[in-house]
Design goal:
The complex is a heterodimer. Chain A is about 0% helix and about 10% strand. Chain A contains no helices and 1 strand. The radius of gyration of chain A is 15 Å and the shape is flat. Chain A starts with a strand and ends in a 39-residue tail after the last strand. Chain B is α/β, with parallel strands linked by helices. Helices cover about 40% and strands about 15% of the residues of chain B. Chain B is built from 17 helices and 14 strands. In chain B, α5 runs parallel beside α6. The longest helix of chain B has 25 residues. The two termini of chain B are about 30 Å apart. Classes of the chains: A little secondary structure, B alpha/beta. The interface between A and B is large, with 41 and 96 residues. β1 of chain A pairs antiparallel with β3 of chain B, so a sheet runs across the interface.
Chain lengths: ~45, ~450
Amino acid sequence: MKHIKTLSKLSLNTTEGKGCGECQTSCQSACKTSCTVANQKCENKNQ
Amino acid sequence: MVHKYRFKDKYIALDINSGAVHVIDKIVFDILDYYDGENKEKVFSHLDHKYAFNEISEAIEELNELKSKGLLFSEDTYYNQYIFQKKPVVKALCLHVAHDCNMNCKYCFGTQGSFEGIRELMSFETGAAAIDFLMNNSGNRKNLEIDFFGGEPLMNFEIVKRIVSYGRKVEKKLNKRIRFTITTNGILLDDEKTDYINEHMENVILSIDGRPEVNDKMRRTWNGGGTYNLIIDNYKKFVKKRKDRLYYVRGTFTKENLDFSQDVIHLINEGFKSVSVEPVVVKENEEYAILPGHLEKIVNEYEKLSDYLIENAKHNSSIDFFHFNIDLDQGPCVIKRISGCGAGTEYMAVAPNGDLYPCHQFVGNTDFKIGSVYDEYYQNHLYHTFNDAHIYNKEKCSSCWAKFYCSGGCHANAYHINGDITQPYETGCEMEKKRIECAIGIKAVLDLEYGV
């Protein structure tokens, strides 16, 4: 493409097999006063 | 929903419902002021004086191609899937092992350790009961978390060690895995505790605000003295021994240090690679509160910090600023993004006497007491209150581009500022939006210009 470079094709639109809840709770990582979820890692090996 | 913004000399478009990130040129940036995926006549009527017909047509074709691949103007189809997939299990507990503190920090949300109650330490029996509670209520979740918090947890360190030993014994029997973490103010962090923590804790939060004069203004001893010199060498020794295992030095910025990028840089210059410095959340009438009028300065600081981190990354430095971390390839799934922090549903805090609260910031507020780890028949009467406080039920979140990044923000901040967990703390929202823009912008610059 000449006008657009796609940096990430991350697709949120499939939930099948996800939502396993094995990932870390966000407030247990480093914040404790402000929720930041998007920087958490997915731990679902099937994803 | 598409959010577009300029970061340095880059134009960026985020397709919110798919999560796709595009770096676009100025023509596309301008077209997106009008184009909704179908109405190209409107684009021509507004931009034909600025760009040639062929240029506009070409750019629209590219946008249409992304649309056909589901990477632009995509639909939000998640609501029903979220509702059906949520299950009421508890997977993380924050143990307040000490409602007491050897510091007297001005901005403490825990009333200098007491959480508006009596000063007390958690017993081993209560800690063990908390582990049992977690095991009994975690369903088929394998990965569980216990955070040792306070007050200052190192004031009750022998009990911390006994709780860890008990947890290790129980997890094996039930084929679970507990990740232990701890947050400390560093005063009591001697060699023995350092070695124990480095062996047993998967993540460690070391509290410090940054430059000595900034730290000492807020983080004080009970005699009114500063604490920087009491902790800095402990932290340096700790981090050296920890090697590449996870830790963060974590600070809070207030109205008193709106130039907080200097505090982040100070901590990095002192040798710390993983740093988190975040805004204080208090009522607006506190003298050190962050107010809407401070936002312009704060936005500017995040930009300065972005410049600094880009410069570092260019030289292969592995600095990790917590709030700019973002994984554009495999971040959390959409269910996690909708459900948010899990406070009051899968995450709870345990007071020293075993009482359960939705999170560490609600401890001591009896309106939010859920029960006790000693309850024979546990039932979370606040489950639906917190489970329903998701982005689709918050009016301000449902139309916000940042909803799948911040997941609706902190319930406790919303409650403490607005008295309602469904009414987000707007000044916090503005800062979070800027952090997200910077996090993605830094990735774009490093990827396109430096291949990092």
